[in-house]
Amino acid sequence: MENVGTVYLVGAGPGDPDLLTLRAARLLARAELVVHDGLIDPAVLTLVPRDAELISVAKRRARHTLPQEDICALLVREALAGRDVVRLKGGDPFIFGRGGEEAEACRAAGVPVQVVPGISAANGAAAAAQIALTHRDAASVVSFVAGQCKGLSDQDWAGLAGKGRTLVIYMGVKTAPQIAEKLMADGLAPDMPLAVIESACRADMRVLRGPLAGLPELVERERVKSPALIVIGEVTARGDAALARIALEAQA
Predict the structure, then answer these.
(1) Which part of the chain is the Tetrapyrrole methylase domain (predicted)?
(2) Which of 97, 122, 207, 223: CA 20 to 30 A from 74?
(3) Is 59 a catalytic residue?
């Protein structure tokens, strides 16, 4: 088809604009239409030309500006009208970002689609807290899971966390009590160390630590809000959030 635009699925990384890939920054600098997630840091959006059109498709738990099907339809419609579309997604588009669904919708409609990977929330948050997700003395396996998936109690998480393993949980703030209960029921020790990393790579980043059994109380007491990741495993006891924060402030 002639005069069909391209949809670029672009990973915005964990928040700090300095962590964008060069290609992502170039696409934003020349964008005419940006369809972006709600948790994109405002500093990233300042890279977009002032005359570009910005469309927020913010998602919150049980509150979506647009259902996913409508987001896919929006991308296809704009591209078929001849516009290049930058679909800006937090972290990496293909790690809990529904980028796969959007790419499939574009291909099905004959719309060219390109994927620009970003630093995932897990990698960015761990780096900001100086927590090595793998470590020769502590972990050789890393698993990513979604904490708000349907049928959480029916998921088989046995073996995902424990000695020599690191578990990273996305979107787990609201379901922290169920997560802790499930992991302990699946055999994980109540005193397994963990870290909750809130607003990673941003000025208001917090790293909260405690044992698995205390996760629900920690989240409630500290009033943890999204975006936040839960990292479970022995590696969390090795990070140095204080040094990470100093480095972040010095960079700013």
Answers:
(1) 6-215
(2) 122
(3) yes
Express as a percent the part of the chain with pLDDT over 90.
75
* pLDDT category of residue 122 using cuts at 50, 70 and 90: very high
**Known active-site residue 137:** no
Ordered by where they begin, the domains of the chain are 7-119 (3.40.1010.10), 122-251 (3.30.950.10)
Catalytic residue among 37, 41, 89, 92: 37
Beta bridge partners of 210: 194
Unique residue bearing structure tokens 């022995």 = 234
Residue 64 CA to residue 53 CA, distance in Å, equals 20
